[in-house]
Amino acid sequence: MQQYEIGIGLPNRFQLDLYQAYEKEGGEGANALAETKAEVRWALADWGKIWANPTLYAEWAIVSGGPDVAEFKLLLADDLAPRWVWAANLVYETEVGGDKTHTYEITGGIGRTMVDEVFSLGLQAKVAWEDTEADRGDFENEILVGPSIQYRPLPQMRIDLAFMAGLTDDSPRSKTVAIAGWEF
Length: 184
Fold this sequence. Notes:
The protein has 184 residues and is mostly beta strands. It has one domain: Beta Barrel (Porin), CATH 2.40.160. 0% of the residues lie in helices and 68% in strands. It has strands spanning 2-10, 14-23, 32-43, 55-63, 69-81, 84-95, 102-115, 119-131, 140-154, 157-166, 174-182. An eleven-stranded antiparallel β-sheet has the order 1-2-3-4-5-6-7-8-9-10-11, with no helix packed on it.
């Protein structure tokens, strides 16, 4: 999947992000639009004023060929010690049609700055439970764990890489995430 995003900082600790995600089946053919998403985030206070810097998140995804999806998160992150940071996300996602799949997820990570403003290493994990309206409470369980890297070749540019291995039968064998970002 390839995802393109633009984030717009707004007054009063709000942020609006707009996404387009494209997927390709197999190794042949062109990418097709998979979903269009809009999200709004609101930080409860300026950074460092409340422990864990809580931020509320709401997203709506228009899925090509499937039901739309609503997602809500509580985002938490803070300094742990000098050069160390942590983050955790509590997630609820629901399809508004189709199988009416519900997903409950906890993601978390810890990272250490190795070279100030240039290079960081970390470890991240994802635990998710998913069920459908027809089988409420009969969850598929997904657990992924692995290392992450952030490299900032320029002050306004970042490259994030995460390589996670699945630990349960319901988990994908592996998941790799690569993000290239540019701050304007």
